[in-house]
Fold:
Amino acid sequence: MTQLYSNGVALNMDPSALGELRDSSDISDNTDALRCRMADDGYIFLRSFLDQEVVTAAREEILLKYAIIGEVDTNHSLDDAVYCEQSALLDVNLRAFAKSVRDGSCYKKVVLHERLLGLHERLLGGKVRPFDFRWPRFARPGEGCGVHCDGPYLTRGTNRIFSSWIPLGRVTRIEGALMILEKGPRHADLLKRYLEMDADRDHLEWLGDPRNTRDRFETRWLTTDFEAGDVLCFAMNTVHAALDNQSPTQRCRLSSDSRYQLASDPLDERWNGPDPPAHGRDKVFFPGLGSWNNKDFQDEWKTVDERGRLVISH
Structure:
């Protein structure tokens, strides 16, 4: 198997350190079994759960927008999503561009899919409210995502929230698939202080080195090769990261993060409302373009000027 990396760190490829996500498709219609699986594993992985045509339409919609600003090489098929290094990023109103991507009509049909909402309603036991903010994610070759839990970033209103990671097209291991740290006996103790933190208040960086984190928790990283229509749903205390995109064809990874809570629970004001403030009005969700251990959220959020133009601090 090809050596896999996360945040530039070579992972231990031994089966005792790296395993396969458990597929829960066989219990997708059994609410009690799904809740038990989530409690036991911290995640639910469902193959071919969403309509592939709906996901493919969202992929095309988003890639067209990235092609317009020169991030995708139009000398190749759009679906190949081949990275182009000569983009117009410095000339683009990044705030307007990012909003157009996350508010795209085809993309909304994925994150607001009736079956996806129904899954979260069954897990949470009531009518759900999707977060108003959504996180479509474009990962260039060499890029990934650091080790973290979602809790410190999302739970000012309630911690009864689930995240759904959705591949918008094929995402194999070497193209930057998501990976989840298997739950083990030391999980709760090692995460207790971290999960009490607030990412903005406490200036959180990534949780740790992916190899050292696995050693400390004494479990395994779990991942797989994903296809359009798959869904990976996980809890606020689930440790996860992304593998680095090592595509041999310079293929960019396209995926989505969306969050769901009970409609009756309080909201986190950072991510909800007609114009969510997120991590600050001067920042735009635009992952990649460098690695800063997520200091000041720079790995995922880029500072922009008053005209929405990109400003990268080093």
